[in-house]
Amino acid sequence: MSNQPVSRPNSPTGSAKTDLAITVVLIAIAIALPFFVDSRYVMGQIVLALFYATIASQWNLLFGFSGIFSLAQMAIFAFGGYATAMICFYFGWNVWAAVVPGAVGAMIFSLAVGLACLRLTGVYVALLTLAIAQTMYQLIVTDTECFTMVGSICRQFTGGAVGFARFGELGTRALLKGQWLVGNYAIVATLFAITMLFTYAIIKSPIGLAFRALKDNPGYAVARGVNRFQAQLLVFGISAFFTGLAGGFYAAHFQAIGPGILSMSQLMFIIAVVVVGGVGTFWGPLVGTVILVAADELMREAGEFRTFGLGIIIALSIILMPKGLVGRLGDLVRWSRKRGQAAHREKLAESPAPAGE
């Protein structure tokens, strides 16, 4: 084996100073938004976009940084939402007490999915996880057996095709009255910030380096002592906890959760967000969310064309920007720096030597 040092690839998050500057700007924008947005519809779309960005960031951790092409991300999100709703509905818990157990339930579910995928790679992981997600959807919508009576209404265990509604809320309506949506925005924005902070710490840690090594060169990573099975289960669990937590807050924000969240269009949207923003880039999911939420609003009146339109956006992004928008911007910045350094060296070479030398 060669004794030459192994050079690390360029950081997928950029320099720490750049990330810190971007973070400060985003925090300032997040704080200022409620003062400039007076439309309840627009604020509601911003909250929804934050949920999408949170899910996309964790799918990016799973696929972009670890190379696991799972299609069960929306199933995990739905599991967290359903678990939170069912805990509140059947046990009468407060939403705030139920979201963490719901997230833990989603993590356990994801670990079971991870165990099923341990000996699979590539497209086989995608097919199995998609089958699991579709099975979950079918189990919910075909659940017609009466589990309990609520007044004169028979309720299924999973809520069936109707789902769950009015099982609890975040408490902002009673506390903030007409400004409850701003309160929910603050809660979801904080959840997104914590998720991104934790993801950043994982990416920058030795664990994150092991994830990227398994993605880029599995054979070499295993030869250097990285346990692929343990790493795969770990990233499944980390990604699922925050995805499930987002699912719980999603259900609480809308006071409803149903099988529609498992639709193929929702999954396509999350994939499109990451691809357009930049697979394997830290800020890609956020940038992709901003772009595609705006595009989705423009296509909302197009009906079924929405899914087709997202497919076109994904195809064009893959062809024109294989690294996504953030990846392309990173390449441009590095190219600009190299040109500047080359110009500086040429200027030094052309400058006359000091007198007396």
Automatic annotation (TrEMBL):
This is Branched-chain amino acid ABC transporter permease. It holds the Pfam family BPD_transp_2. Its main location: membrane. Coiled coil: none annotated. It comes from Metarhizobium album. Keywords: Cell membrane, Membrane, Transmembrane, Transmembrane helix. It is a multi-pass membrane protein. One of its GO terms (molecular function) is branched-chain amino acid transmembrane transporter activity. The chain crosses the membrane at residues 20-37, 43-62, 74-93, 182-203, 233-252, 267-295, 307-326. It is found in: Cell membrane. GO terms for cellular component: plasma membrane.
